């Protein structure tokens, strides 16, 4: 069966969403009603719909309805301020904006639940801000084919990268669907015929309870979630049966080796990792046993992808030499909506630079160093904040940490660590912890403690915001 729409027609009683219990047939009926409602408002192929929605069935309905009408769907972060939301809605030229369940109900009201005529695949257009400037929509060409025609490519790709297969399965949604990876995995799960368990938010123990209750087989998470679950007391961790898990895919941020190893010691070899971006999608991937053989890698180029590491002059670097990562995909191109200059500046011919520094080993496995924008140069030496953060996170009293470079007249930049403690700990304790782990030049010159550090809902640390706040406070 080719994806959600066909599964819903041929096996309508299959459970699509666990809470509230919704079958594939019921979900498709609502998807079709909303599709007709969008058509009734005059939307045609290539038009844009924006959704400012929390996780739930309504978000799923909008994804699948626009996905069979040849529309672009823009999921908008509901945490944004109204001016920020207005900017995205205006920039994408949204013809319809959905802001809550009542809007979805209004689109569906009085509409027939049969399939619309002229069905053609749509696409999701996510807005990404990178590290600076206003958000830009990452827009891909519409496939120009029925939704069912493109499903086999998804299924093949996910099978190669994550060992995810069509058939029985339960997918746990742990992150906001306005971000690209959680949104894509929600769609993938339905095309594979799996049941969605949509968590209202991430909290460590309730997530474990959901895994046990629904016998979850696969999920998508981010490293911060792993770290928070590892802070649970041993007796709490042992309370839940997690034996149903087969694949937990993680992405969005570098995962400290010690954290990933500890999760696999607990859950077994079930962690699948991929590295990419909203623009490049899944560019590198690594399965559990390959990672265990090469701790720290984010994998080799995913199917259809090529990769190379270039120096500042655009020359290709040999294995082991860090440089800018460039990738090229056979799955198609993208452009930043209304910004051909930004599109061109992010490319070197057919090659796209996600903005990270890394190196390939002799077998073609990629190891990340850091974001180019977060690189600290102190005394002429390159220092990667992520490496220091990973080492500090190994201390049992550290809940979160951000390492930044602060301007210094003598050194260029000094390394400063801002630590969110989990238990009582001193700066001297942490420096002693780093002594056997990192060279002395990588040790923070300053360690300060914070009640909380700014992270996005998907767990990405906002170092730029940390740096701005720190420098503003210091005058």
From TrEMBL:
What are the AMP-dependent synthetase/ligase domain coordinates in residue numbering? 6-110, 117-329
Gene3D superfamilies, sorted: 3.30.300.30, N-terminal domain of ligase-like
Q: Which Pfam families match?
A: AMP-binding, AMP-binding_C
Q: What is its EC number?
A: 6.2.1.3
Molecular-function annotations in GO = long-chain fatty acid-CoA ligase activity; medium-chain fatty acid-CoA ligase activity
Q: What class of enzyme is it?
A: ligase
- PANTHER family referenced in this protein's UniProt entry, alphabetically: ACYL-COA SYNTHETASE, MEDIUM-CHAIN ACYL-COA LIGASE ACSF2, MITOCHONDRIAL
This chain's protein is named Long-chain acyl-CoA synthetase
Please tell me the species this chain comes from: Nonomuraea dietziae
The upper taxonomy is: Bacteria, Bacillati, Actinomycetota, Actinomycetes, Streptosporangiales
């Amino acid at each position: 069966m080719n994806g959600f729409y066909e599964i819903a027609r041929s096996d309508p009683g299959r459970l699509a969403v666990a809470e509230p219990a919704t079958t594939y047939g019921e979900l498709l009926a609502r998807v079709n009603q909303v599709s007709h409602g969008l058509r009734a408002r005059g939307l045609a192929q290539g038009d844009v719909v924006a959704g400012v929605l929390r996780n739930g069935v309504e978000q799923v309905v909008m994804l699948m309805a626009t996905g069979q009408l040849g529309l672009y769907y823009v999921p908008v972060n509901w945490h944004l301020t109204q001016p920020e939301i207005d900017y995205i809605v205006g920039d994408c030229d949204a013809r319809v904006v959905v802001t809550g369940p009542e809007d979805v109900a209004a689109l569906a009201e009085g509409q027939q639940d049969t399939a619309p005529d002229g069905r053609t695949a749509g696409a999701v257009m996510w807005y990404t801000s990178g590290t600076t400037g206003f958000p830009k929509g990452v827009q891909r060409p519409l496939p120009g084919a029925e939704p069912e025609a493109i499903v086999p490519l998804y299924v093949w790709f996910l099978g190669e990268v994550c060992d995810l297969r069509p058939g029985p399965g339960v997918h746990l949604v742990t992150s906001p669907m306005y971000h690209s990876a959680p949104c894509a995995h929600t769609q993938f799960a339905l095309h594979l015929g799996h049941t969605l368990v949509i968590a209202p938010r991430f909290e460590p123990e309730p997530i474990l309870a959901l895994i046990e209750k629904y016998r979850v087989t696969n999920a998508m998470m981010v490293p911060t979630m792993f770290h928070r679950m590892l802070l649970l007391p041993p007796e709490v961790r042992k309370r839940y049966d997690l034996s149903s898990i087969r694949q937990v895919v993680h992405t969005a941020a570098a995962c400290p080796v010690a954290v990933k190893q500890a999760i696999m010691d607990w859950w077994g070899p079930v962690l699948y990792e991929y590295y990419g971006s909203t623009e490049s999608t899944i560019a590198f991937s690594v399965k559990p046993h390959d990672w265990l053989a090469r701790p720290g890698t984010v994998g080799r180029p995913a199917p259809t992808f090529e990769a190379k590491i270039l120096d500042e002059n655009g020359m290709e670097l040999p294995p082991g030499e860090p440089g800018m990562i460039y990738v090229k995909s056979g799955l198609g191109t993208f452009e930043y909506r209304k910004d051909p200059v930004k599109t061109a500046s992010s490319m070197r011919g057919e090659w796209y630079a996600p903005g990270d520094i890394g190196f390939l080993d002799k077998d073609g496995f990629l190891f990340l160093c850091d974001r180019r924008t977060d690189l600290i140069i102190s005394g002429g030496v390159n220092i990667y904040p992520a490496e220091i953060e990973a080492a500090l996170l190994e201390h049992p009293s550290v809940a979160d940490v951000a390492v930044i470079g602060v301007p210094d007249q003598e050194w260029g930049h000094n390394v400063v660590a801002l630590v969110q403690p989990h238990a009582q700990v001193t700066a001297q304790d942490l420096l002693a912890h780093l002594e056997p782990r990192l060279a002395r030049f990588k040790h923070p010159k300053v360690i300060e403690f914070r009640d909380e550090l700014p992270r996005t809902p998907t767990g990405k640390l906002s170092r730029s915001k940390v740096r701005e706040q720190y420098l503003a406070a210091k005058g």
